[in-house]
Amino acid sequence: MKHLLLLRHAKSSWANPELADIDRPLNKRGKRGATAVGRWMRENGWIPDAALVSAARRTRETWERLELPGTPELRDDLYDAGPEALLAALRAARDDKVQLIGHNPGIGALAHRLAVAAPGHPRFEDYPTAGLAVLAFDIADWAALPEGGGAVVAFLTPHDLAEA
Length: 164
What we know:
Blueprint: E1 2-8, H1 28-43, E2 50-54, H2 57-66, E3 73-75, H3 83-91, E4 97-102, H4 106-114, E5 132-137, E6 151-156, H5 158-163
Parallel strand pairs: 1-4, 2-3, 2-4
Antiparallel strand pairs: 1-5, 5-6
Helix pairs in contact: 1-2, 3-4
């Protein structure tokens, strides 16, 4: 059994229009959201064995705010990557529980391609910032990762956690 923790980066700042997109940091709401998602992950035992993280500043800061153990693999090829590139990265993974932190529209499109069925959550369709899907796959090796083969164990947003 393999588990994927598919996370879109938290809310980023547009305050400095001179920054390149890859260099945009998290804003205050993003920092709070990533911290809340990390707390939920720790409280519910969803600690990844490995993390594949886009090299963008906002994805790196999202990882840091999760406060999870380990060191992420920062990857330039995941910055603004589409679902094909994300699938390729996952199919090369070796650990049982893998986290992938990236950007929309790639993350949302990948979630839709991998899920057997969409969860009942109203925000799954647009996959908001700091949206997290936990998917389970009945496979022994990530190389066999099937499209449409993942059971959605959980899907949540920071907004859901703020209401709890």
